[in-house]
Specification:
- With 419 residues, the protein is an alpha/beta fold.
- Helix content is 47%, strand content 11%.
- The chain has an 8-stranded mixed β-sheet with strand order 1-2-3-4-5-6-7-8, sandwiched between helices.
- Helix 3 crosses helix 4 and helix 7 packs antiparallel against helix 8.
- The chain is globular and about 90 Å long.
- The two termini are 43 Å apart.
Length: 419
């Protein structure tokens, strides 16, 4: 019986890349029988570098210049268990790409690592060429990107290597359990990929060591391709963990994720800015009138001030949690001062006195934690309060304008509903 990934649409679509017989004309369905489309183009090791990229459209009979949407699947590594049946793929994926990219990613912090240079491999470059060709074949289509593992790296690089104009055709991207290659990109590639940061949903599993190559859990989406979501997963065997079998769904049917200031709060703001850019583009069709300019300015100010407030709040809460955990451990250490280890002849009072003489007191344990954290938490709380106040001032200022101008209020309501 075939194991199933969690029933989440985008993950299911991404994992269709591993289905057998992905040839032109094949109809693709996910594990829950939802149609993805029909394969219309296949790049299967065409360059000798091991790339496997598939273009999928809903109706293959539609003339190419009339296709509105194309799904591009970047297949991940061929499993080592296929070494005997498919040795070339296994070698290309693991030796020529996975291993080399992992070493280059780990080397980023070395003083001799060359910054602002394209550190890609042959397969990443081949995947980039495939994406460009697909976009040329379907000149008016929006592009949806999916990839897992090495396919995630291929997708990250292929998008980053587009021109700033080309990348605007990327409608959305969902990539899973791949290393972060942001540090392997040159300056222009980073600038380009950051243009659509709010459209790229980059899932990583902290329990999967491959996902965490090039990542710092505390940095979240910072210095990463797209918006990073750390999946809250169940523990599995090494292979199943990497293949997303540990993923869980929340009560809303979405992938369950861990929350932190550098992921949740930042990602919400990035997603809102992406909506803002789409709205701005829509309103720009005939130029901006005075009310439209005021609306766009107020939207941007609200998103940024709310984002700053949200990040400050999450950061303050994180500091409070760190303080509470550190204080609890310090209290446990302090309480243990009267617990006589097995084999010792000292009484609890004598042991306590010995610890005190050595410098272990309430002041040097619990007190030291309070002394270290309290000013930091106080400063963070002050910053949070300042940003919250700014957010309220901006919102009340906008509302005051709307209360004075019914026409403006009507326009704002109409444009708000366009989000």
């Amino acid at each position: 019986m075939t194991k199933k990934y969690v029933n989440e649409n985008n993950l299911q679509t991404a994992m269709t890349e591993y289905q057998d017989n992905m040839v032109v004309g094949r109809e693709v369905y996910d594990q829950y029988k939802k149609e993805v489309g029909t394969v219309t183009r296949v790049y299967d090791n065409t360059s000798g570098d091991g790339e496997q990229v598939y273009a999928v459209v809903k109706d293959p009979s539609t003339p190419r210049d009339q296709v509105k949407e194309v799904t591009v699947l970047f297949r991940g590594s061929t499993g080592p268990d296929k070494l005997l049946s498919n040795p070339a793929d296994v070698w290309n994926d693991w030796a020529e790409n996975d291993a080399r990219l992992a070493l280059r990613t780990w080397a980023q912090d070395h003083p001799n690592f060359t910054k602002d240079q394209d550190h890609s491999t042959g397969q990443l470059k081949a995947s980039s060429r495939a994406l460009k060709e697909i976009m040329e074949k379907y000149p008016h289509a929006k592009i949806n990107i999916y990839g897992h593992s090495l396919g995630s790296m291929d997708a990250q690089y292929a998008m980053a290597n587009l021109s700033p104009e080309e990348i605007q055709r990327i409608q959305k991207a969902y990539i899973y359990n791949g290393p972060n290659i942001y540090g392997l990109l040159n300056h222009q590639q980073k600038v380009t990929i950051d243009l659509i940061k709010g459209r790229i949903h980059n899932y990583a599993d902290p329990k999967d060591f491959i996902s965490m190559v090039g990542r710092d859990l505390s940095k979240g989406s910072i210095d990463s391709v797209g918006m990073v979501y750390y999946a809250d997963t169940k523990k599995q065997g090494m292979t199943d963990q990497h293949m997303t079998y540990g993923y869980q769904l929340d009560k809303n049917g979405k992938i369950k994720t861990l929350s932190s200031a550098s992921t949740t709060a930042v990602n919400v703001t990035l997603a809102q800015m992406e909506q803002y850019k789409k709205l701005k583009e829509h309103l720009s069709s005939s130029g901006y009138n005075k009310n439209e300019k005021l609306f766009l300015d107020s939207e941007q100010a609200t998103i940024i001030s709310s984002g700053l407030s949200r990040v400050a709040h999450e950061g303050t809460e994180e500091l409070k949690r760190l303080k509470a955990n550190a204080r609890q451990k310090a209290e446990e250490i302090y309480k243990s001062r009267r617990k006589v280890p097995f084999g010792f002849i000292l009484s609890p009072s004598e042991l306590e006195a010995a610890y005190a003489e050595g410098g272990l007191t309430y002041a040097t344990t619990v007190g030291a934690i309070d002394e270290m954290f309290e000013p930091v938490v106080a400063k963070a709380s002050q910053i949070e309060g300042d940003f919250t106040k700014l957010e309220k001032q901006i919102k009340s200022g906008i509302q005051a304008k709307l209360d004075r101008d019914r026409k403006l209020a009507g326009d704002f309501n109409q444009w708000t509903n366009m989000r």
